[in-house]
Design a protein that fits this description.
Helices cover 73% and strands 0% of the residues. The protein is mostly helical. It has one domain (10-163).
């Protein structure tokens, strides 16, 4: 989720990351295929959604990293992404503003994405020497595991709410 410091501005960053819209196959490959072929789960997130990555690095990660260790800054960036870019603009935010109960499912999911990203980095999982199909399967596997763990967390939280 990092943006190199020498990046001048958003349009140039996006052009560098995705190429010209005039080359639609290159653009679509870089946007949708390249992340899944990344050699690791952290590399997947560095390639996924360059627009979010730019904004998150600029407004979340960098300020957090000035105050906290890198791992905590990465984790809090994922949490902020889940809350501010997924839960608030969509279903949960709408329900919260109406005074209704809604679990922050996006925040839970992105918190797990962050934890598993840091875990995979910590244990040094790197599939760069494996064929592209293995890299893609590994990244999809991390995503599926994250979704499964987030569903378990949601069921657990709903069970706790029901018991109280």
């Amino acid at each position: 989720m990092l943006v190199k410091r020498h990046t001048s501005d958003f349009p140039h960053f996006m052009l560098h990351e995705l190429g010209s819209i005039g080359q639609p196959l290159v653009f679509l490959h870089r946007l949708f295929i390249r992340p899944f072929l990344a050699p690791s789960f952290p590399a997947f997130w560095r390639d996924w959604n360059p627009a979010y990555r730019y904004l998150l690095a600029l407004y979340f990660y960098r300020p957090l990293h000035r105050r906290f260790p890198r791992g905590l800054a990465v984790f809090l960036t994922f949490v902020g992404c889940g809350l501010l870019l997924h839960d608030l603009p969509f279903f949960a935010g709408y329900r919260w503003f109406r005074g209704e109960f809604a679990l922050p499912a996006g925040t839970i999911l992105f918190s797990i994405f962050g934890l598993l990203t840091l875990l995979s980095e910590r244990i040094g999982l790197d599939f760069s020497k494996y064929p592209t199909i293995v890299r893609a399967a590994a990244n999809v596997g991390w995503i599926v595991l994250s979704i499964g763990l987030s569903r378990l967390a949601i069921v657990f939280l709903l069970w706790i709410k029901h018991k109280s």
